[in-house]
Every structure is written in structure tokens, then in C-alpha cells.
Amino acid sequence: MKPKPPYLSLGIxxxxxxxxxxxxxxxxxxxxxxxxxxxxxxxxxxxxxxTDRLGRDLLARIMQGGRVSLLIGVGSAxxxxxxxxxxxxxAGYFRGWWDKGFVVIVDxxxxxxxxxxxxxxxxxxxxxxxxxxIVISITGWMGTARLIRSESYRIxxxxxxxxxxxxRVPTRVVIFKYFLPLLAPIFFVSFTFGVSxxxxxxxxxxxxxxxxxxxxxxxxSILSDGKAMMEIAWWVSFFPGLMIFLVTFSxxxxxxxxxxxANRREMAQS
Length: 270
What we know:
This protein is an all-alpha fold. It has helices at residues 7-21, 23-26, 58-94, 96-110, 114-123, 129-138, 142-156, 159-166, 171-207, 219-225, 235-269. Helices cover 71% and strands 0% of the residues.
């Protein structure tokens, strides 16, 4: 019996993407406009998620911030997954000094806890969306690379790969035609985890004041703005936190489904 696709998680994720990309074009409120008479106004029909400490519409800010959070999440995951794929395949296929170099580089990166390494890099570089994408990518490719390397070792040991090598089939043909299709499930699982991990990393940095800076906004920076007023205006922190939770939860559910499908396919082939 095939695992059922996580329709609820896919629907939530699609709704949040549409909310972030299309919502600002349709919603009438401006995320930057101050309203002196509506400071910390609770959720109402006029302002569905309330307003913040400067009277700005929170829903408009969450829509705008969602673009930045999703951009950082997807951009970081794409770059980190590609780095992990290249490094892992190279180590697993070529072995020898490629593999030894891979182990040294990964051990060097893993010497420091990832989040503290992230904090160290961001502390010396002015934060922006591009900088955060690059920094999170640099600190987030190791897990994917280790999984890809392990699976590449297994694939390289298969008899048909040895036959292809003896037949002097070009390396690029072996990798692109035989390795990458077999590695695709692991790659996509790592990618989905990478997106949620990058969004959480950006949110953590913004919450600590080291992430996105005004006038740019993200879910993490909006959440950080509300931490000083949680007792009197719960909605300022609740709604951006809810967005982060929903995206992370949906991506984890999708990752679990992809992993289960990959495991079933591997069991069927063995």
C-alpha cells in the first residue's frame, strides 16, 4: 500500500506561498504605513491580525515578510543541497583523495555547532537577504553531503557501475544518467528539510537582532518586534510564529512522505 500524499500539508504550504506572493497585490493595507490611532490594535474586521507598536497592519507585514522568509529558505536550501550533492557524489564516486578531502572539510565545519558558526559569520557581515542565503548555505550543506556520500558509495559498488567503468563510459554520463536519478529521493528529502531549517535559522537570527533589519522584514524580524509586548499584545508575536510553525510542519510532513516513498521503492527493488 502506497503512502498517501500529505494533502493537508501541501495545501497549507501552497496557501502560505500564495499569501506571500499574491496577497500583497490584493490586500489594501500597506505594511509600512503608520497609524497613530491604531497602535497595538487587536485583530478586527479592519485589521485581521491586528496592528503592531507603530500601528502598522500586521497581516500586510506578514505577507511582505513571508516573501523574504520563503526566499531565504528556498534559496539557502537550493544552494546547500547542490553543494552537498556535488561534494557527496564526488567523494562517493571518485573516492581516494577526493573522499579524504571531503572528510577533512566536513569535520572542519562540524567542529563548531552550526548555529554558533552562523552567529559568528553574521556578526561580522551586515545582514541582508542575499547575505543570509549565502551564510546559511555555507553552514547547512554538510548533512546533505554526508547522506549523498553514503548512498554514492552504495551505488558505486553496484555491478552495473563497475561494468560501465570497465567499458570506459565517460564519468559525466555515469553520474548524470545513473547516479543522479538514484540520488533524487535523498536530494529532495534533504531539500525540504533544508528549506524549513533555513527559515528557522533566519527566524532565530532575526529574533536575536542579527538577521533581517528594517525597513526589510521577515517572519523572524516581525516575531522579534513583538517579544517585548507579549503580555499586552499577544497577536504581534503569535501570527508570525504561527506562519513559521505551519511552514516547518508542512515541510517536515512532506519530507517524511518522500522518505517513506523512497524506502518502499528501495525495498521493492532489493
